[in-house]
Amino acid sequence: MPSLASAGEPSLASWVEKAVGDGLVKPLAKHENGTSGFSRSRRPPRERRVRALQQTASIDKRERAFVPFAIDVRFNSTEWHEADVVGCVYRANGQIFVRIGDGYRPAAFLLGKDVQPVAGACEAAPPARS
Length: 130
Hints:
Layout: H1 12-33, E1 47-52, E2 58-59, E3 65-74, E4 81-90, E5 96-100, E6 103-106
Antiparallel strand pairs: 1-3, 2-3, 3-4, 4-5, 5-6
């Protein structure tokens, strides 16, 4: 039974789905629809779904809460391709980062912006010693 304090709040998974859906998936679909069909890049997926990868938020070295996520894609088949895009979304401001190579860049990178990796983004701080 939910507590009274959390009765009106969406679950963490629902919040991640909405934040990443509105902040990345929708703009990415719009961006892909505006590109030429004669490109050598892969075709856009027919469908995307966002999944929170944790039930609780992690804390980074700057003591900011974030939640890792994955975006699964489906092309013309019934089969989902899991974790096509992975990243994290920060709870306080909804800022989204995606994993590119060994680092995390702002999600604007997938929309064609030239943005650099951000040191420490999406990296959980080591547990405090007691």
